[in-house]
Amino acid sequence: MLGLRALAARPPKQRNGMTQQTTLDPPRTETARAAPPPLVIEATRGDMVESRHSVSFAVSDPTGRILLHGGDIEAPIYARSAIKPLQALALVESGAAEAFELGDAEIALACASHNAEPRHVETVLAWLARIGCSAADLECGPQMPSRETDQIVLIRSGDKAGREHNNCSGKHSGFLSVARHLGHPTRGYSRYDHPVQQRVLGLLETMTGLDLSGAPRGIDGCGIPVIGVPLGNLALAMARLAEPDDQPEPRQAACARIRRAMAAEPFLVAGSHRFCTEVMAATAGRALVKGGAEGVYCGSVPQQGLGIAVKAADGAGRAASAAMGALLTRLEAITGPEAERLAATLTPPIRNRAGLVVGRVRPAAAPPL
């Protein structure tokens, strides 16, 4: 169905010393009807719609049953940073998090695409020192902070942007922690053939229910491998993160630890005025969401055992977040009062240079049930 070979029921296999458990069939829709259309996200200006974005989406339960979908959910996409919570499972499941006494802050940062606000940077540097590393060991490259105010502070200080400022520095600190704990070389941890990345690949295979050995592959902006996975399987993986009952006990415990950290420290997952942080804080962790570059968003709804994945065809991040907000509202993971408080986040205003509201980004219609 999905263009990649599904992991059929068979004895567990080994990838780099980690047992991969038997998995279910790939996501399946209830009928063989033609795929429903994608969500349309529109940008208004004054009296008319100025632009439209097409967003494919899938909602899955932990068995792989697709409950809601639209657009193309079978073609592989690069999920980019939207699957950091899945990649962070290696940090917990390997025992590295426990060995280095990492708390919610560090685990949330392992899931983060952060703004490089002071707390983000300070926590990363303290974490690296704890494992006997420094920012020089990060292979993500330097990056200016996301917010202009933090950029100005950095420039005025006379310092340059460092690797610790990279929005992926928490994820990379997690990979270094796994390498340190398991005795692997820290240099080259971002390469596809490094034991840490092979461990992460094995996790992605069992969570998505796919053999990813022949999947499309590239290099992310931060230097780690990106693997092409269909939206339906990404939704399945996020559903398993929400409700991992079919996974071995260590995986169940790791999923619970990731969920707890993201709910406890939403600021560290993104930062000020960011969709991820605002939604998770407003819902007290009932909705766990993570965005990625090129218009991707993934989410888990733990109380309902659901996973969500969306992809904007044109790569527009504003469309992906608006689609995710619409789906969370439709699934009642965001309640009516919460939606009112999150109005500027779910349907953000478009402002001109003078700060006047001149339009809005919004769904053209509510997602179908």
What distinguishing features does this structure have?
369 residues; alpha+beta; Beta-lactamase; 3-stranded antiparallel β-sheet; 37% helix; globular
Q: Would you kindly provide a brief summary of this structure?
A:
With 369 residues, the chain is α+β, with helices and mostly antiparallel strands. It contains 15 helices and 14 strands.
Low-confidence stretches: 8-14, 16-25
Helix content: 25-40%
Strand content: 15-25%
Mean pLDDT: 92
CATH topology: Beta-lactamase
Q: How would you characterize the largest beta sheet?
A: 9 strands, mixed
Query: What is the 3D shape?
Result: globular
| Strand element count | 14
Report the CATH architecture. Answer: 3-Layer(aba) Sandwich
Q: Tell me the count of domains.
A: 1
Order of helices and strands: EEEEEEEHHHHHHHHEEHHHHEEEHHHEE
Give the CATH level 1 class.
Alpha Beta
Descriptive account of the structure:
The model is unreliable at 8-14 and 16-25 (pLDDT under 50). The protein has 15 helices and 14 strands. It is an alpha+beta fold. Helix 4 crosses helix 7, helix 5 (118-130) packs parallel to helix 7 (169-182) and helix 8 (195-208) packs across helix 9. Strands 3, 4, 5, 6, 10, 11, 12, 13 and 14 form a nine-stranded mixed beta sheet that branches. The chain has a three-stranded antiparallel beta sheet with strand order 7-9-8. The chain has one domain (19-28, 37-363): Beta-lactamase (3-Layer(aba) Sandwich). The longest helix is centred in the C-terminal third of the chain and has 16 residues, at 249-264. The radius of gyration is 20 Å and the shape is globular.
